[in-house]
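My main concern about presentation is that the manuscript never shows what a single data entry looks like. The format is easy to grasp once an entry is in front of the reader. For illustration, here is how one protein appears when written out as sequence plus structure tokens:
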Amino acid sequence: MVFYKIDAVMVGDDSQVEMNRQQQKARANDIAEKSEGFFQKSDQNTLMFVVGILDGKITLGCISKGNDNINDILAKYVKLLPFEIEKHKTEEITFSALQSLLSCADRNEYIGGDTDVLDIFEISSLTSRYSDADFGEALINVKKSPLEIKETAESLLFGGTMLPEIERIYQNSTSKNVSGHPVHYIVQTNDRDVRKSIYKNLLSALYASGRIKNQRYCFVDFDECSRFPGATLDTIYRCSFGGAVVIRFTSEDAAAGEFGRRGHDIVAAVCEMAHKYKNKVLTIICLPAAANEIKEAFLMNFGNTAFVELHEDVVFTDKAFDFLKSKAKEHKVRVDKNLLNKINENQGYTSSNLNEIFDDWFSKKLRNEIYPAYKTAETVKAKIKEETPKGTSYEKLQSLIGLENAKGVMNKALNYYKVQKLFADKGLKNETPSMHMVFTGNPGTAKTTVARLFADILKENGILTNGDMYEVGRADLVGKYVGHTAPLVQAAFRRAKGGVLFIDEAYSLVDDKDGLFGDEAINTIVQEMENHRKDTIVIFAGYPDKMEDFLNKNPGLRSRIAFHIPFDDYNCEELCEIAELIASEKGFRIEQDAKNKLSGIFCEASKRSDFGNGRFARNIIEKAKMAQAERLVNMPFDEISDKEIFTLVAEDFEIPLEIKQEKTIKIGFCA
């Protein structure tokens, strides 16, 4: 299917004759009827229509399903019009340009309706309103000579595969109306601009040699997340009869193993259309260099269709130097040792590699030498490298006493994602690692607090989408009846999506006997951890010895956990710092004598296995505040200063009863 626009001069220039609205409408209706008659006489293969008439000039449009000569079509159509034309200019146009012509013709009443025309030719689904595919159009450059095409291929380091194919194309050039394509094409390179240049030059050669008849071609973009191409794809191919369709895989992450089921389904749909119309439409598939899995998927789905693969040459030292020098000459700069030193002897380079090397060097050259006023300007990469973690939650975590293991893990996670951003353009695969964790420690060691801060930090730094923490226990995950447990676990993961699922006292899921509901919960958790590894972090928490038994319950559980973080008991010094921190957050200061007393209390308390760690320190401060309040109430009001109101003294701190009992001297025989 071909679309044309024709601009012509009317013989006699009857536009000078005054016509009222009724006369104009009558002429428009007459022309519309003649256009309809011409369409029916062509077996509904060709529609010629008038777009507009102004100042002795006329614009016409044409839709043709065949490859008949447009000048012959125009000559037959003009004989039906009530005037003659001369000095006409014909050009092939895109579908979007055709839409504009039809819309204008509709307003001028030269056609019955623009949408009706699109429906008749079954191309309505190409409009943005109905399209379910990401596609566009362009026109082939018909002025490129064979020599220019070959020079371009060599300059882009595609000579090894491109030059022999250009020779074959021009050697077999034909003007015969042969329907069919001996081969289709796959173009592979990581540089999108190079890919585009290669397929454009290939199309120029194919058009010049008569292998394709249409100057207009369509390109379809997709990746593994694209919508499934439905009716639009079939329409794109049908309206491209005699021309070409370029299929462009646009994902930057094209490594093997990452192309999911949906991606394979899209490839299958594309191949179905390409194979169906393989003798009427040429297909060019454009892929990144690393997309071998996707290439194999295309080849398998195309069956016995023959393909010519066009890919980058690999060049070494001298040719790499020549390429860089050519790029420098193109940009009107002189090469220097900083550029040439980037080439390693005996290492192979593609045009993508060399373009990246040159662009990096040229950017620095511009900033440091050509425009030295910008020498001190920071690059985005430098800013990323120096970037500190965002948000108040990170600062809160760093301010907590102790917890060096937890702080270290968070820094590792943030640095990992920083590296992803820094080196993505050097081929480092952008992936989300498993971040599931186990927190082990006694009560009061800040496990829950750290989990909440982790969720907030990962949200504030763009790693998690919402940063909420959803806390659950056995009652939330284990059902009372058969078939209830798995849905409960799945619902918990849905609620926690984009955040942290915190399972406290996770070992409570373990039943005394195998095969009960707790086992079902653990098995479902393992499955959901894998399903949501990229969008949800699971944190299991509990006592160290019991957590070990829990991890041994399911063989797949331990392997899915990336970090085991021990939360050690706080020592005397850390407990004193925690007490001071808690007091200061509430606006109080602790007098030195009181600090000395606190130190003794904490040293004795830390010897007990169940003393409560941070919770013990918080309780001590809360009791001290109440004791202080009682002390102040019994003092004369006028003697109470502002300083005394916000100061905790030694007598405000009582030695807990359990510690007093431990210190009681026992009577008897002692070793």
